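Hey, I'm writing a tutorial for new members on how sequence and structure tokens pair up, and I'd like a real worked example in the thread rather than a made-up one. If someone can provide the structure for the chain below, I'll link this post from the tutorial.
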Amino acid sequence: MTSFAPPPGTAAWRHLGVRTGFEVVRFHATPGGHRVEGCTTAVEEGEAWIVDYVIDLGPGWVTRSARLTSRSARSERHIVLESDGAGHWRLDGAPAPWLDGCLDVDLESSALTNAFPVHRLHLGVGAAAPAPAAFVRAADLAVERLEQHYARLPDDDGRQRYDYAAPVFDVACRLTYDESGLVLDYPGLAVRAA
């Protein structure tokens, strides 16, 4: 069974590989959950962009809502995703049935959001589970269903490790988490900076 310390007041990641940039988040305790306010600024394929987000997490780190703004030289876009906590979603107030069964939001622009399923699933060493997510693209905030899979490995030097897979992106890597269940190293994408 997974057990994590409370999240820190703030955390930050340096994005490298796929993009160059930085992500900073701030955590607030709420009745029964957490609010996460964050911002990623990056350059990817020669284009600079900014994604601001506010994510409300209910009990067990299940995503309840995500409010996002994306800005680049090409456009500015805003969306609101809302979940009933049982796998049903609304996008800007309209039903989003393609997301049925998803309990997490996963932002393309964020290393933080890989913490949500790890907290929610409470996997013991050797256990594995699917974790489909409402995946939000960085540039245009398009929302897709993302099939993901997490498998818990033995801890390494007191740090939890998971094999992560997102087949549609041909991604399979090992993620390492700190005592609060936040990603320390996402190979090819980000490393924890603070």
